[in-house]
Amino acid sequence: MTEKQSAGIADPTCPSCEVRGMDKIVSQPSSETAKKGQPWFFVAQCTDCGHVYGVFAKHIFGPPGGPQLVVKERGN
User: Fold this and answer.
1) Are 58 and 41 spatial neighbours (Cβ–Cβ below 8 Å)?
2) DSSP of 20-45
3) Where are the domains of the chain?
4) Would you state the pLDDT for residue 2?
């Protein structure tokens, strides 16, 4: 029994081609990019068949002091 099996952690299985393992899931940047060449989002997909698990927005670090929520009941 492997360490993963004894810990109760199962390898993910692709619903399309049924290949197993974390090494079969990759994240790739989108081909669309911002002006500075940074990707807009990342796509998580199966390496064998291309099944898409999800699309994730990249982290954006903007200048501080963005919009603020004002709640009138609190006197803000």
Assistant:
1) yes
2) BSGGGEEEEE-S-B-TTS-BSEEEEE
3) 3-59
4) 58
